[in-house]
Amino acid sequence: MPLERPTTERKALAVNLDSRRYGSFAEIGAGQEVVRWFFRVGGAAGTIAKSMSAYDMSVSDAIYGQCERYVCRQRLQDMLDREHALNLERLKESRGDTTAFFAFADTVSARNFHGTNECHGWMGIRFQAHPRDQDSQIILHVRMLDTENALQQEALGIVGVNLLYGAFFLNHEPDQLIESLLDNLSTRRIEIDMIEFSGIAFRHVDNRVMSLRLVQLGLSKAAMFSADGEVLQPSEVLYKKPILVERGSFRPLTNVNIDMLEAAKAKFKGEDDVESNDVVTLAEITMRNLKANGDIDLRDFLERVDVLAAAGMTVLISDYFEYYRLAAYLARHSKKKIGITMGAASLIELFDDKYYTTLDGGILESFGRLFKNDLKLYIYPLLNRETGELTKVDNLEIASELRTLYRYLVDKGCIEQLEAYDPEHLSTFSREVLRQIEQGDPAWREHVPVVVADLIQQRGYFGCRRANQTTKTAPAQPLTPVAAPLAPLIPAAGMMTSVV
């Protein structure tokens, strides 16, 4: 039998009745929605040192300093820093031995009168897990999905209570803490697409795994993190940027993947309406790909993202199996051009109408959604090693009833062939490289970037025997960063993924 989730009232009261907790609330943009719960349930005098709002921009700047935007991560961090510092300055000497101080803050844009704004916000808590303890912190980005302002405010208040309760009572179980954020809510009302844990209480937490949990639990359809492991909020990274993405399994990253990406980047940056310095490149892994062998294997997940990090890549974890859903997600964050690069084998799968039976309009509806925002597909050739023939855009085998549609998309420029590829890499197939690694065949190193090969061998990734476990093996070279981030990557096994 599943455990009963405490109500929002019970959570707020549990915080109020915990005599160790004492702190401040600062909320901007949607009323005092979180602190209201603690006033309502009783016992708030033992918990709340101060509650405030600073709606006027000049007042907010005077308190927290200048900021380009008022609903952003930096404004939230400024609020948490100042309010927590004030608590310690004013109260540490008088009650610091018995009190664990905290500061809660949020800065939110709820639905305006005309319904024309993006409804989202930043929320966080800086706190001491125990009296006199070093600080810990949780910040998150939330999107309110209700269509009415009052409902958005209600949902925001519930998420805030869940965050406070989780920080105080579940900080030793971050997986449970994340799951509890949706208590007394549903994914129809709230989306959390970014969460970051830091500080002494979370010193063993890997925020990349926490990003994965958001998608796994349905709190978000996608999550993003940088090569150095920093979690990113997608809209802040993608806003007004041209986007180039490659979907893959990345087991492991190979030279052909890098070649595919570099060829696509050169083509993409040559588009008339693309500023080359603004292009954001993403390596996308779908949840279905991660679950290819059943449940998600966290070790396997971390091996993949570590390999991507070694090549300087920004990673997007998504639950958008169909490409048209991925395209819609990206278009939500940017009105600039979007490009997707894939192998010819994936393009063949893309034109298999068995994947679109759930759409009323079938494959036509799918392609209408996929290409409606001037999206382009950049296709990498597929080598037939028996005949030496290359499968390209101009000789792709398409079902007869779809050839007219295919030719229309090619002629319109929605599907373009990549020509600036390195023929030496066309014979590399990721599944074979993985098998060579597992079997201890040293030839695998020839098919992956040096920095990736060194990482795999040093850490024993993908079943590789470590250098000190083998004989007559040259010592691994120290890992060095690539000269510039390479971005997206390899084709992958499974439906709708590049197979090269």
TrEMBL record:
Official protein name in the record? Nicotinate-nucleotide adenylyltransferase
